[in-house]
Amino acid sequence: GLCVDIIGGAVVKPHSRPYMALIQGPQRNLICGGALIKEDWVLTAAHCKVEGGRVILGAHSQTAKEKKKQSFDIAKEIRYPCYNSGSKEHDIMLLQLQKRAKLNKAVKIIDLPTSDDDPTPGTTCTVAGWGKTQNNRRKVSDTLREVNVTVIKRQVCNDNEHYRKNPVITDNMICAGDKKGGKDSCQGDSGGPLRCNNVMRGITAFGKANKCGAVDGPGVYTRLTKQYVQWIREIMGG
């Protein structure tokens, strides 16, 4: 249950994040977010339990009937081969859709990063999702929300006032939150893209259970390293 809604954020202008994918379970319940990276491929987190689920593109509201929504069954789910749910290392997965999305104003592809620059501590990044807006509430957000978070040094993230190396925040991860707390991703946001300077740099991965927005438990994101991007391109065939 450490899967990481958006804490301290605001609702985005409808369809202004056209690369966002909403992943729902068999009961139309929110499972995770994701990013459309090719007409028929969505990038998300490996810990997302997507079996029997579907992907909705062009969504703003989870529940409202929206003309711009496109719904897809999942043809293939491909987790990164070395994903480890214990160490939380390599939390990245590709979903192939049953058919190609029709690209338009509400549904667009987000580019993979061309370099694997590690965002420097202090960089402002944004994360979006339909997840929880408060820790103690079971309810998730009906509409897509986004929040700014600041990149935190791994050394700080691993110290005794934060994750205490349990799990270890590695070079394959980005740690980001707010010094004062109150800005974070949360349950239901997992799999969504972390964007820094308008480039996708990470995937929402995990936080501390029931401590979204807490100073000692900033959000942790899978970093889109060269290794991962190469794997993604190989799987997608080019």
UniProtKB/TrEMBL annotation:
Pfam families: Trypsin (PF00089)
Domain Peptidase S1: 6-237
Organism: Rostratula benghalensis (greater painted-snipe)
SMART domains: Tryp_SPc (SM00020)
Keywords, sorted A to Z: Disulfide bond, Hydrolase, Protease, Serine protease, Signal
InterPro entries attached to this UniProt entry: Peptidase_S1_PA, Peptidase_S1_PA_chymotrypsin, Peptidase_S1A, Trypsin_dom, TRYPSIN_HIS
UniProt KW Secreted keyword: no
Keyword Disulfide bond annotated: yes
GO biological process: proteolysis
The protein's name: GRAA protein
GO molecular-function term, one example from the UniProt record: serine-type endopeptidase activity
UniProt cross-references to SUPFAM superfamilies, sorted A to Z: Trypsin-like serine proteases
